[in-house]
Amino acid sequence: MSKPACCLLSLTVFLGIAGCSDVPPELPASEQLAEHPAAAAVTPKPKPPAPPQAQLPRGGRLIFPAHQLVAFVGAPGSPALGPLDADLDERARRLERLATSYRGGRSTLPVMELIVVTAQGSAGRDGMYRSRIDPAQIGKYLAVARKYRMLLMLDVQPGRANPVDEVRRLEPWLRLPDVGLAVDPEWQVGPGQVPGRVFGRTTGPQLNAIAAYLSTLVTRYRLPEKLFVFHQLAKPIVRDETAVRTYPGVATVKSVDGIGSRAQKLATYRGLTTKLPRGVRSGFKLFYQEDTRHGVLMTPAQVLAVRPRPELVIYE
Q1: Which residues contact 21 (CB under 8 A, 6 or more apart)?
Q2: Residue 216 domain-assigned?
Q3: Is residue 32 part of a domain?
Q4: Distance (Å, whole) CA 50 – CA 15
Q5: Residue 21 lies in a domain
Q6: Is 28 inside any structural domain?
Q7: Tens digits of pLDDT across the chain (316 residues)
Q8: Distance of CA 202 to the CA centre of its chain
Q9: How many domains does the chain have?
Q10: C-beta of residue 301 within 8 angstroms of C-beta of residue 265
Q11: Which own/partner pairs from 205-210 qualify as long-range (CB within 8 Å, at least 24 positions apart)?
């Protein structure tokens, strides 16, 4: 029995459509775009270039080993604390001249070390035995440091305050590419103690907490290497020093603040730098008044001859 005509007609139409040469096969995606110019013109926008990374005042992003650091220390109106007490432009030019004597095959990078938290012999309103500098003064020193392409280093003498808290208060400046940090644990005392009557102290883990905090700032704000200095007058001032470690983006320096005759200063320096924690650099402090009173202030050539070579030289 033959199929009904309607069925044959439907089959014929279906076969005709399926095999008709007038109906093109599906084109590849690339060819389909070519037939639609508007679609082809839509291309992904290129990513904007990353902003340039911040540099150190005299170029580059690493402090060591390229640079020799030479610093003046001080605070406004306090000549006993060092030469950075007044006449900042004149002192900056003087520091620049002094720094040129320390080249020794490296580029010099002068540093202005400003004491922003000063230990006090009286409790103060909050009982913390320390005073803080007016923030406007920090801005003033920073402006001069930038004028002469120098680093500004903020120095903290905590008194009875928590040193990490004092450091965190300085974040508006520490997040800048040309501002470093120094802590002076000789002036970090415990409950019931008074700065100046006893030697203060810190610990390796506490120094690590500060360095780790600085490292987070370097990463978050894409900063160049951040200078971190801890001052040390005698071995007991830093307990558990073997625990001290370095952190990414932070250049850690131990500044040996030896006092006395030249022989005494060198003996203190050798004793505190013989077994430096891995990655920690050495610094050496000279005192215009005390060193002259005990003998002759060491010349740059004499300081550069000391071993290990001090990579930071500070004048107070």
Answers
A1: none
A2: yes
A3: no
A4: 60
A5: no
A6: no
A7: 444 444 333 433 333 434 434 444 454 544 444 445 554 556 777 777 777 899 999 999 999 999 999 999 999 999 999 999 999 999 999 999 999 999 888 999 999 999 999 999 999 999 999 999 999 999 999 999 999 999 999 999 999 999 999 999 999 999 999 999 999 999 999 999 999 999 999 999 999 999 999 999 999 999 999 999 999 999 999 999 999 999 999 999 999 999 999 999 999 999 999 999 999 999 999 999 999 888 889 999 999 999 999 999 999 9
A8: 20
A9: 1
A10: no
A11: 205/240, 205/243, 206/163, 206/164, 207/183, 207/238, 207/244, 208/243, 208/244, 208/245, 208/247, 209/164, 210/163, 210/164, 210/167, 210/181, 210/183
- The C-alpha atoms of residue 263 and residue 251 are separated, in whole angstroms, by 29
Q: CATH number of the domain that 164 lies in?
A: 3.20.20
Handedness of CA 140, 143, 149, 153 (dihedral sign): positive
- Tokens coding 11: 């089959």
Question: Domain residues for 245?
Answer: 67-315
Q: Which two tokens stand for residue 90?
A: 């004149």
Tokens of 239: 């307990």
Strand partners, 151: 111
